Amino acid sequence: MSVIEVVRGDITRLDVDAVVNAANEALAPGGGVCGAIHRAAGPELARECAAIGHCPTGEARITKGYRLPARFVIHTVGPVWRGGDAGEPLLLANCYRNGLALAAAHGVRSIAFPAISTGIYGYPAGPATEIAVAETRAFLAGNDLVSRVVFACFDDATAALYRQVLGRN
Ligand code: AR6
What is the pLDDT of residues 65-110, one digit of tens each? Predict the structure, then answer.
């Protein structure tokens, strides 16, 4: 039996096996949650990312967590919102699906996701949250290795939205 939790706060502080990074295709330290994860993990993280080099949108890559409490960082690249007709929903769903599959393959039992694509990449929060919750539930229904998924919400509005979507379905 696995649990889904909503936590309001900074994902870099969470005591989980893996945190997910809302990365860019170059796996470069950027702004937003990506910048926060790189700052907290230290410069070794950017070095390992540079050695990987590239991650296509919707895919995921794993690195160590370095100075984070989390043992791993799973980097996934969300779609840039272009109005919704450019395959964004499928690409965002792939981020959750591929991130969870990579986690399970590395023995991760607890994992925290930020609200991928909903900041700098401009994906509307409501539809993005529906996808995050639906994909996570679908994955957990077919997997008993990952036992705890945390949705790390940076502000109250995001946390309220996740609670609403989780409670309704
Ligand atoms: N903990 C949890 N959530 C956070 C944190 C944090 N410390 N900081 C921000 N958020 P964004 P994107 C929330 O912009 O839209 C980067 O430069 C934020 O409020 O970080 O996927 C990358 O390198 C929002 O709800 O990611 C890419 O170039 C959510 O995290 C690009 O931005 C995602 O916002 C990716 O853009």
Answer: 999 999 999 999 999 999 999 999 999 999 999 999 999 999 999 9
CATH number at residue 117: 3.40.220.10
- Cβ atoms of residues 83 and 63 within 8 Å: no
Helices marked H in the chain — which ranges? 32-41, 43-52, 88-105, 125-141, 156-168
Centre of ligand 1 from the C-alpha of residue 37, in Å: 10
The total number of structural domains that make up the chain: 1
Q: Which residue has the tokens 């791993």?
A: 72
Q: Is the CB of 161 under 6 A from ligand 1?
A: no
What is the span of the domain harbouring residue 15? 3-168
Of all protein residues, the one whose alpha carbon is nearest to atom 19 of ligand 1 is: 154
Answering whether pTM is above 0.70, one says yes
CB of residue 57 inside a 6 A radius of ligand 1: no
